[in-house]
Amino acid sequence: MLSPILKITHRNFRKPCLAVMVLLMLFGCGNGTKPDLPEEILGMENLSIFSKEDIRVAGKLLLHKDLTFGERDDLLLGEPIFVDVDGADRVYIADRQQMDVKVFSADGEYLRSIGRSGDGPGEFRQISHMLADNITLWVYDSILRRMSAFQAETGEFEGAIPIGGNLLEIDELASIYVRGIHKQPGHRFLIDAMSTVIPDPVTGWEAVENRSRFYEMNNSGDLVEPSLFERTSSYHIMMVLGPRMTATPVDFFPSLLTGVTADGRLIVMWPEHFLLEIHSENGEPLHSIYYPVERIAYDPAASFDGADNELTNRARREVRFPDYKPVSRHLLIDDVNRIWVSVNSKPPEETKWWVLDDQSGELIARFDLPRDEPIEVIKNSYVYTRQTDEDTGLQQVVRYRVEIGDTDD
Fold first, then answer.
1. Which of 69, 234, 273, 326 is the 20 to 30 A CA-CA neighbour of 257?
2. Residue 344 and residue 369: Cα distance in Å, rounded?
């Protein structure tokens, strides 16, 4: 098993400058190279720093196509947005267009559809999150602001929980958006509650910060105070439209990536750098993992999907763009707690994926996937992706069997 080139533990290195000196020696002072690490990263406790050699010698992960869901002519997927797998290997596919959840057996047999469009019990206005465990399928509706529960075995509706009924009692959450929902041990949930920090005064064209606070949710749907911790989660741009201004989401700034392990640890990544922070289920920092990833320069001409009009052209003149693209867009945790992270690369139509050990930080394997084939879930040595059939244009969910081998370098 590989070891990091440097493990900084401030119980041993009490001054950051000493840690920097050790790091310089390990990288080699003779060739004049220096690690390009901000001081706030080097000053972190229990930080494991890996090298480019650790990346090079990582194993090769192979995906073998196994099964396609949604290829039958009599059962089409409209717009699959979430995929999950329960303990019996049943596959759940949330369809935003048809506003239901389609259920398949492990061998691809269609079993049933759950829910429909509407406001009544077991119905959805907008499917925003979906989670499956051995007993229950949970579906969160951000318009109805409730989590509906369905029996995994039969699909029968069991009830609904209003999310954050006590939000108005928490001052900083008066205008909350549930950005993410994670399962925790003991049938508990961790809620990523996001709010926007509006500047005063608002002048337009500035980046407006969104902040996430992480709360445990009780059985009544209330968020338990205090929050476990909070972080910047994303940014909006305040765009000027005549006398009005609107907050526009953008993808050229980093966006907070999160995942929860089976034992409740929270994995957090702010993808300005390849830096993973591992927290206990109570929000206490445990350790961090850093890899030297080449950052790709950002071209403002590509902003706003390359649109060429008066508004976007003015935005390109007024907005202060980042120098680099985010290093990652996706973070997932599989059922054995391995961390799967996408890494932006050249060419842009391709995404590199890395698989890391959650304890040591070792890079176990890496592989490439087309950028338009995002991974949704990894379970029981299978990877489930969303993709579009080139011949028909139909949306499908494809399952691959995972094989990890030696590096081919």
1. 69
2. 11
